[in-house]
From TrEMBL:
Signal peptide extent: none
Short name of any one Pfam family annotated for the protein: DUF1706
Name assigned to this protein: ClbS/DfsB family four-helix bundle protein
PANTHER family: HYPOTHETICAL CYTOSOLIC PROTEIN (PTHR40658:SF4), PTHR40658
Source organism (scientific name): Hoeflea olei
């Protein structure tokens, strides 16, 4: 799927990838909620998320928390309180620590609750996106608080691109688990 450049494309990509994610999770059955993610014997992915996310709940709450970041950031800036996307003390160099904070926060969240939270925050992000025009979403510099990146780019990162990441991760688990069986 090409990277969206219009509001309609953004909405379509986000909804399409979210539906694919939910279908994939649904295809795994109820037992998938308690099964640890397995990526293959001796698998050692380079990125921290491969070791961080132990189950589907961890993936779902990760997506949910990044939705919440986007929503809070947009609403705060729209209210006139200029804030960076990442909350202090985090930066793009230390956002992995923020991801670990999210992981720790949700270690007692039930699998079903994680999916409910993800569904709710997805809906809220889609409502947020719908408030903006094509120009507001995709004109560089339209909002001073987005810096050199468009608001639409942040929305893509928090929705369709992030859903694609989760889908790839879950598919890796499914393939490795099938080979193991």
């Amino acid at each position: 799927m090409a990277r969206p450049t219009t509001k309609a494309q953004l909405i379509n990509a986000a909804e399409t990838e979210f539906a694919k994610l939910l279908d994939l999770v649904g295809s795994m059955g109820e037992s998938a909620a308690s099964v640890p993610l397995f990526f293959g014997p001796g698998f050692a992915g380079k990125e921290a998320h491969w070791a961080r996310d132990k189950n589907l709940r961890d993936v779902a709450v990760h997506l949910h928390e990044w939705h919440r970041l986007l929503i809070a950031w947009v609403n705060t800036n729209q209210a006139g309180d200029a804030q960076p996307f990442l909350p202090a003390p985090y930066s793009w160099k230390t956002y992995g620590d923020l991801n670990m904070e999210f992981w720790r926060k949700h270690q007692h969240t039930a699998h079903a609750d994680s999916l409910r939270l993800l569904g709710e925050s997805h809906r809220q992000v889609m409502e947020l996106i719908d408030r903006f025009s094509d120009a507001e979403l995709f004109t560089q510099g339209h909002f001073a608080w987005t810096g050199t990146t468009t608001l639409g780019s942040y929305c893509i990162s928090a929705t369709s691109s992030h859903y694609d990441w989760a889908i790839k991760k879950i598919r890796t688990h499914i393939r490795a688990s099938a080979r193991k069986a």
